[in-house]
Amino acid sequence: MKTTRGQNYLIMLLGFLGLGALFGGGALIISPSGDLLGMPLFLLESSPFTDFLIPGLILFILLGIMPCMLIFALIRKPASAFAEKLNCYHDMLWPWTFSVYISFILITWIQLEMVFLQAVSWLHTFYMLLAIAILFVALLPTVRVQYRKPV
């Protein structure tokens, strides 16, 4: 089946998120002190973390690896019994549902980051808008029809 413009947008948005999170999360894993990204440890004073290792792992896995794997799933639409168990939209294929999940994971990540850092920057706004864009594009009727389960 031919991909639609909406599907291509969804894949590009997830690719942008995934690559950025792989880079940012990877940098925090390699340098838990935050030095590699110029992030001082005092930023974590209001958080439960003493360094950036755990946030880096979460960023790398949930917002880096997952969106990148999801791109493959959106294109190939593979069957997955495990993913289907986590699919709360029973009329939709799991890759579409996980695209919606990723947007909510990103919104939660940004909200927690703002609480823990006790600050808001332009990057928080940018990534919040990215989460909304991913959700908006996933909900487009032309995208939904491509990921509806066959009856």
Automatic annotation (TrEMBL):
Assigned keywords, A-Z: Membrane, Transmembrane, Transmembrane helix
Transmembrane parts of this sequence: 9-32, 52-72, 93-112, 124-143
Top-level taxon of the source organism: Bacteria
Presence of keyword Transmembrane: yes
Protein name: Uncharacterized protein
